[in-house]
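call fold(seq) -> tokens
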Amino acid sequence: MTSVQTTDSAELYLLAPEGANVKVRDDLLDIKVLQDVDGSGLEQWIPVMKQAFPLSTSDVEKVFDALGVEHPELDRDGYSLDQLLEDLVEPSAAIRMVEVQKRRRRFAAGGCMAELYSSIDAADRRSIDGLQPKRADVILAGACILRTVMDKLSQESLTVSDRGLRHGLSVERFGAVLTR
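ret:
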């Protein structure tokens, strides 16, 4: 797997209970709709709109439709980001705004492009219970490799143990769980 690019971004997500993925990044409003979820929970999202501000009335209606929320009366011809948030989103009881700092790492693997996201940096990952601090820099890439191996082996689950090989063999052979 070859690292191609790393970018950091500040994103604003608009969330509603039944809605699609609506976010603002780099002064663009982006709507993605869930297309499919496979047996292992991997989600495929399809982009349906990427629009610069100001948004037209029609574009604002599409945002509310994507969120599954009835849109309020629209009294402008166009909406800047601030106008969208202050006039329409903040007064809505059905929509929540969430600011996210995201690091996206793009990799090339087997002729395909993959993108790993992390919303916390390696320094913060070092404080996660159960994660060895020295693994904080590589855990995301490791998870991607593990997912690929499991897919190639047609495995949907994985058992993780802090025990040794003898314990695993005894469980497999005898169906017994050894206690310490």
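The chain has a mean pLDDT of 81.
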